[in-house]
Amino acid sequence: MEVKIGALPRMKALFVLSLILAIGFSCVAAIIEQPADGADEGLSTYIIHVQKPTDELASLAADDFEQWYQSYLPLSLDSSKQPHSRIVYSYKNAMTGFAVRLTPSEAKALESKNGVLYAKKEKIIPLHTTHTPGFLRLNQYKGLAADGNQGEGVIIAVLDSGITLDHPSFSAVGMPPPPAKWKGKCEFNNRTVCNNKIIGARNFIQPFNGAPKQPPFDKEGHGTHTASTVAGRPVKGANAFGMAPGTAVGMAPLAHLAIYKVCSDRGCPESAIMAGLDAAIADGVDIISMSLGGFDNSFYESAVATGSFAAIQKGIFVSCPAGNQGPSRGTLSNEAPWVLTVGASNVDRSIRATVRLGNGAEYDGESLNQFFHIQPLPLAYAGAGRDSYSAFCGPGSLSNFNVKGKVVLCDRGGNVRMVDMGIEVKKAGGAAIIIANDGLNADSIEAKAHALPTSYISYDAGLKIKNYIKSTPNPTATILFKGTIIGNTTAPTVASFSSRGPNILSPGILKPDIIGPGVSILAAWNAPLDNGARSKPTDYIPYLCGLGYKDKQVSIITKTNVRCSTVRRIAEAQLNYPSFSVVFGISPQRYTRTVTNVDRSGASYLSKVYAPAGVDVTVSPSVIKFSRNNQTATYTVTFTKKAGSSSVGQYSEGAILWFSGQHFARSPISVTFN
């Protein structure tokens, strides 16, 4: 992997990073096993990885590949379930193998066959702006910075729940035609056709019970939202309940969109994800965006990781979300180093709903619904002197509690949705609701729609309001609705729901890679000047062997025949990655990085170290001099644990910055004391 510093090329860095910052956030939940289809009782979908064929077979067409895959299946199947009807998908680009309906015993027998690397039962992965371009210093009507190319000529694949083709965000007016390399298909019917914006759309969700395959329409809305955030055209007058009004525009409004429906209301089957990746690679896309992911035990078991590796082998950039399981540690998904993993941050916009108490104290909260200011009313805490469930204002919890005409304070938690809290308070006769955040999420609040006047406040504010209620026999409160407020100077900060490291599958690789706006985004940051990275797929083989993977397991990922015994293995933290993840024992640790000058001329870079607490950091050489474009240089970083520094399980953070007269590059450092 090469680490780039200097003026990153617009196409390769500014566009890609600013785009990806907008697309990496979606609900990423626990993986569930695929339910058996009632029509094929006892059968489940298995993904079968086989050895890469000889050069002669590798040149076969996709249909011929399926015939070759059928040769792996047993011929002694029930007459009503012959091999040709069992194969769900045949893959050629994203992996070498196929998806097939089998019983557990059939799958076990198939895995023992010569040439079969791995048979895994499919899992179902659940699915994980108007102001954002201005916050990121992007031109409101152009998406990218005014001197950027707005994504023109770039094809972005969105693997999600489909698309609403007639939405104004996908207007083709003024759009150039797609590049000549485009080979994709449009699977809408004759009345609904693709255009120069949506240049292709396919559906990889298998119909149930023999029903006909449907066009890739978006019934969930998730895919449409993601696609418009990525590359939507300007839409004037966008708002949510009248709030945050403006012109909604994607981050790359002139980019072409290729839609691959791999998710439905049942989730995202791994076999469909792999089929979408297989098609996207063949179709000639430049970037793949997948707002989905889950938890895996290894990279070779992950459809996203293995399929993405095939994409980067073809020079395709892949981005996935870190997940929404924060703020607990070790909750990441999509940890593979060849995927850009994006965490979520807030923006500098809030839709303000301020609580004013009877003693004059005010606490800022948020609410998407902006009502008229309410007059001071009696204030009551739902959990005062009652069972713990009542504090969460869950369904039926306030039936015997007099809240009529009052402002009711409820606590977030108890597996009660916030919208249901408002419904319960309204049902019980309450006039308004204050929702206090829980301690885990603390200050991370966002604007949501509610059933009655509401303010969603921080955990600390909730504690202070409870103390006020205890301090007076007649507590009162009002809510002041102030509308859209721009200029939160603390933004961006990591959203509480954004999944955190450390990287469980590979602790030596720091993830997420970057963060970007993911809180209160209505629909569609100039790139961090952090180090850009471009990978060479062969660089990962010593890394994967160094993880202790067996030859077959590495071959599943790389789609090549690998013998780790002949490979010079490297420690995972030695991979030429833009960041450093250091797991300390006792001995000092030393890592090297190779950087490439992408400025058009020579430059000198001076290093500045922000050492993590408890660690000494030495960089050698401390100055890197380049005389020409694309020149490389290598530096070494030594990490030494200070005597008496943090104990086991503690974390510390820092960074190394490289400055020239015009540019700087930043390498984050994360230290775990083991």
Characterization of this structure:
With 674 residues, the chain is of the alpha/beta class. It is built from 13 helices and 33 strands. Mean pLDDT is 82; it is low at 7-39, 129-147, 518-527 and 529-534.
Short description:
By secondary structure, the protein is an alpha/beta fold.
Descriptive labels:
674 residues; alpha/beta; 7-stranded parallel beta sheet; 7-stranded mixed beta sheet; 13 helices; globular; serine-type endopeptidase activity
Number of strands: 33
- Note the beta-strand portion: 25-35%
Strand order of the largest sheet: 9-12-8-14-15-16-24
Helicity level, as a percent range?
A: 10-25%
Shape: globular
Terminal CA distance reads 27 Å
Mean pLDDT score:
82
Pfam family, one: PA
InterPro entries: PA_dom_sf, PA_domain, Peptidase_S8/S53_dom, Peptidase_S8/S53_dom_sf, Peptidase_S8_Asp-AS, Peptidase_S8_subtilisin-rel, S8pro/Inhibitor_I9, S8pro/Inhibitor_I9_sf
Signal peptide: 1-30
Domain Subtilisin-like protease fibronectin type-III: 574-671
Layout of helices and strands:
Elements: E1 2-5, H1 10-23, E2 32-33, E3 44-50, H2 55-58, H3 62-70, H4 83-86, E4 87-91, E5 97-102, H5 104-111, E6 116-121, E7 123-125, H6 132-135, E8 155-160, E9 198-203, H7 222-231, E10 235-240, E11 243-248, E12 256-261, E13 268-269, H8 270-283, E14 287-290, H9 303-313, E15 317-321, E16 340-345, E17 349-357, E18 362-366, E19 377-381, E20 407-411, H10 418-427, E21 432-436, E22 454-457, H11 459-471, E23 476-486, E24 514-517, E25 532-534, H12 540-546, H13 551-558, E26 580-584, E27 589-597, E28 603-610, E29 615-620, E30 623-626, E31 632-641, E32 651-659, E33 664-673
Parallel strand pairs: 1-27, 8-12, 8-14, 9-12, 14-15, 15-16, 16-24, 19-20, 20-21, 21-22, 26-33
Antiparallel strand pairs: 1-25, 2-7, 3-5, 3-6, 4-5, 7-13, 10-11, 17-18, 17-23, 19-23, 27-31, 28-30, 28-32, 29-31, 32-33
Domain Peptidase S8/S53: 151-520
Domain PA: 392-465
Keywords: Glycoprotein, Hydrolase, Protease, Secreted, Serine protease, Signal
